[in-house]
Amino acid sequence: MKGPLFYAKILLFGEYGIIKDSKGLAIPFNAYRGALKSTNDLSGVSKKSNENLELFYKYISNLKTDIVSFNLSEFKTDIENGMYFDSSIPQGYGVGSSGALVASVYDKYATNKITVLENLTREKLLKLKEVFSLMESFFHGKSSGLDPLNSYLSLPILINSKTNIEPAGIPSQKEGKGAVFLLDSQQIGETEPMVNIFMNKMKNEGFRKMISEEFATTTDACIEDFLGGNVKSLFGNVKLLSKIVLKNFKPMIPNAFHKVWEKGIKTNDYYLKLCGSGGGGYILGFTEDFEKAQKSLKEYKLELVYRF
């Protein structure tokens, strides 16, 4: 048995903001992928994955919901026969490892599933997001459902609000100097503790005001610039976003990167922002000159995502 491939995702803009209903933009990232496979010889990583699928199966079996049903007997039999999720997507890195797993389980075992080939109305997209949110909550305690949605559809998705999402056309890549890249923090980040820190901060009126007046409006401006191909304006807004995140989201930025973050803002060689919930994993970088950013960050491993 070998299932179809599901890709990693990158939330270019909107981390934390989408929890509070501001805009977000997610794109598939084809460098990493995963698929359901079977083996007669479970050991090491495949054994651990098989055990996790067993726990996931139990979670799904106990879901009290009318919006989705699964072929549970087939799912259980496949797990007993050595099924595991074979994935190159790094876990705890903010690029949707659990999202790809959720998408592959839905694709294989959901009955009456919404397929990628049908006309994806807003209602269908929202229903998929709701199903995926329910499923992925097993991994994170609370999930927006966006990571699996992105992985399942393999399309850029624009989140206008919780009840308004649509596939987005992003400008095709150019062979320019500018780039979006991933910087490897070489630390694992856990989503749940980071989201809890954010939720606690949201109890503070000043923090709430900053989210709605500064963070959300700057994020929205970045998304509009990116989708509109307004590169010059985009970098001005990304710089501002980088400053806002450094000032207000310090616990989500690994300590070793506070100075690196500041350096980018001071030199304009690059600007950093959170990739996913932060706390480790990847950090997302934007630069008008990728070669310059590579020199400036020569001690770190960078991975190219998109070229301007």
From TrEMBL:
UniProt GO MF annotations: ATP binding; kinase activity
Protein name (database record): Mevalonate kinase
Species: Polaribacter marinus
Domain of life: Bacteria
UniProt keyword list: ATP-binding, Kinase, Nucleotide-binding, Transferase
Domain GHMP kinase N-terminal: 83-147
UniProt xrefs under Pfam families: GHMP_kinases_N
UniProt xrefs under InterPro entries: GHMP_kinase_C_sf, GHMP_kinase_N_dom, Ribosomal_Su5_D2-typ_SF, Ribsml_uS5_D2-typ_fold_subgr
